[in-house]
Amino acid sequence: MDIIVADNLVRQFYTKEKPEGSFQLLKALFSFKKQSKNVVDHVSFTVRKGDIVGYIGPNGAGKSTTIKMLAGVLVPTSGTVHVNGIEPHMNRKRHAGQIGVVFGQRTQLWWDLPLIESFKLLGKIYDLPKERFKHNLDMFTDILDMSSFLSTPVRQLSLGQRMRGDIAAALLHEPEILFLDEPTIGLDIMAKEKIQSFLQEINKEKEITIILTTHNMDDIEKLCHRVIFIDKGQILFDGSTEIMTAEFGGFRYLVVDAPNWEEAAWNGPPVERREDSQLFFRIEDDKQVASMIKQLSDLLDIHNLTVQEPKIEDVIKQLYQRIGH
Amino acid sequence: MIGRHIKLYLAMQSANLRSHMAYPLNFAIGVLSITFLGLSFILVSWVITQKVPVIDGWSTYELIFMTSLWRTTHGIFIAFFVQSWFLESLIRNGEFDRFLVRPLNPMFSFAAHNIQIYGFGDMLAGLIGLVAAMVHIPDWTLGKIAILLVIVISGAAIEWSLQMMIGCMVFWTLQGGAMRHILDQLLAQFTRFPLSVYNGVLQVLLTFILPVAFISYYPSYFFFGDRSGVPFSPVLMYLTPLVALLLVSVTYFVWTKGLNAYKGAGS
């Protein structure tokens, strides 16, 4: 079942043309020349219930603008969006009940109050019956492991704890769809993994549909079934992560464990990446493998050797390079 | 429905208040210093009348009454609605979007977003000034005090409306915050001395265009014995609640339009 249907979404913004030369400021004050720009430019996609979709692209690509239209904050200039059959901006309040939103950089928690107080207030804001509120709070406290800091003021929480709090806050009213804007930004590995496994869990158990924007390739690799890549307001790729890897990967790595490799003396094929004693050589074509192994074994003392699929991160790099970033 | 909103408002504002209490020293010093600052402004009226005993027919205590009336309404505005000053930054840093993803009227979320403790300092100073003046103004009845309460609330509503209308400019322009400094000056200056000391153009401006004079000047006449000096028409001294109602309606209309412009719902 398609829970989100976006059809030819366009969001236009007007910007004032910036006058040049002397008296810029004065000219700007009296200039009425406006330029319009399609920040989101005829974007269409559907999302099935229970999917986790990574919405990615460079800064300024139109990611947040799309999310804001899906959340009912912005009205599309043209095109339509339906979430669970509702047009978000037409029925904003009802829509608000079926979505949860986390803006990673901006908390919705009361900064100076114990975390639990924010939850209680949100329970009132969403008009949750007492038992349901208590049930949900207990559940999230348990799986997000929050009991140790429920009564700590939010300002004293670590970033990871705060993010867990923010995600729980967005889910207390049992929304069907969760929008996450950079949920793992700035988090250490442990905190990141906690959040990723939690998102996986609620997605599986509650069938919550998750749309997340991220610059963290880890999130996509671990969480997303599907990736939508957007740049300059247009979708450049939309499909499963496997297809993306096949289409934009198209290469593999020959990984060689060679502890006594020295960069200065190296005159073999270019080393693309190095992790500890592992050297990554790029292979565009499988026919190269044999000859490259031969070449390398002449030059290096090889302890181990594998052929690896590219990581999503490498694939995304390819995508970015193709669009000229 | 209304009951739920009142309860929710109280819950949210009490949370905001407790947030301030997290810094008790700031809280105490903030309220006290603003109280003294407010009182010192009120005292200026007293100092002036030591040299010029009667200003355009107004005695010391009548002047103190007028300026204290504004100080009180201003305190209410600051305490509960000062966020209209900060609409611009709320929108620019994206916090405003939060109000649009909650199942509440955005105006409600906005109103319940902040409580500013310094307002209580102004209110306290205003109340002290009012009581000090009222002792010297004859013929107080319970009815008059009830009307004074209505006037105070209406005055706060007028200030809120004017501030909000300027604040709402940001929906269209993403700027406009500087405009409020002009309004702040008008409010602080023209609520302290009788309108009649200023020239005719200003009188028209402050009565019919930016109705600042309805906050403290016109309604003060209602409580004084001598009402002969009311400019334009004596009816004006009864009109404060009506002006407030009208302005609040217009402001809500402007807010709705502004919100639509912000969301990009056509022009």
From TrEMBL, chain A:
Keywords from the UniProt entry: ATP-binding, Nucleotide-binding, Transport
Signal sequence residues: none
InterPro entries: AAA+_ATPase (IPR003593), ABC_transporter-like_ATP-bd (IPR003439), ABC_transporter_ATP-binding (IPR050763), P-loop_NTPase (IPR027417)
Gene Ontology MF annotations: ATP binding
The ABC transporter domain, residue ranges: 23-257
One Pfam family named in its UniProt record: ABC_tran
Domain of life where this protein originates: Bacteria
PANTHER family: ABC TRANSPORTER ATP-BINDING PROTEIN, ABC-TRANSPORT PROTEIN, ATP-BINDING COMPONENT
Entry protein name: ABC-2 type transport system ATP-binding protein
UniProtKB/TrEMBL annotation, chain B:
Membrane spanning residue stretches: 21-48, 68-87, 108-133, 145-174, 195-215, 235-255
Keyword terms of this UniProt record: Membrane, Transmembrane, Transmembrane helix
Protein name in UniProt: ABC-2 type transport system permease protein
